[in-house]
Amino acid sequence: MSAVESRLAELGLTLPAVVPPLAAYQPAVRSGVYVYTSGQLPMVDGKLPLTGKVGAEVTPEEAKDLARTCALNALAAVKSVAGDLDRVARVVKVVGFVASAPDFTGQPGVVNGASELLGEVLGDKGVHARSAVGVAVLPLDAPVEVEVQVELTEA
């Protein structure tokens, strides 16, 4: 077990299977020392635990937890092309999309769920640049979607 996966276990988390693509794309691709994930939905066992807009059908606290799930799914996608999460040199960028009710402005707090998980799991390697964007709707009526870019160590 890698050190990163050991840390996940310490946190009571398990790296899930990679979420299969919903359309014509790959969950993650590698280019040189970088891995780019596709947008990861908060799928758990092939299903969305909640649907709807944050600030309407979904609370900000629920959405923050869903963003954690998105980040965990992103780590699984990274591992699928990197082979080992211990090869992550650093998380470079996180982009979070939040399906928002018209008056909801707390997107950064929601996406903190993903950022905090990456920090808990990867320590200083999880510190990253980030965007948190409110959108009208996401695939499958998901409340949150997160994509991650990581740099790998040379191997």
Number of strands: 5
Question: What is the correct CATH architecture?
Answer: 2-Layer Sandwich
N-to-C order of helices and strands? HEEHEHEE
What is the CATH C-level name?
Alpha Beta
Q: Compute the separation of the termini in Å.
A: 18 Å
Helix percent band: 25-40%
Structural class, from helix and strand content?
alpha+beta
The overall pLDDT, averaged over residues, is: 96
- The DSSP helix count reads 3
Q: Assess the beta-strand content as a share of residues.
A: 15-25%
Poorly predicted regions: none
List keywords for this structure.
155 residues, alpha+beta, 60s Ribosomal Protein L30, Chain: A, five-stranded mixed beta sheet, 3 helices, 5 strands, 23% strand
Structure description:
This protein has 155 residues and is an alpha+beta fold. The protein has a single domain (3-152), classed as 60s Ribosomal Protein L30, Chain: A. 30% of the residues lie in helices and 23% in strands. The protein has three helices and five strands, in the order αββαβαββ. It has a five-stranded mixed beta sheet, with helices on one face. A hairpin with a 2-residue loop joins strand 1 (28-31) and strand 2. Helix 2 crosses helix 3 (107-122). The two termini are 18 Å apart. The mean pLDDT is 96.
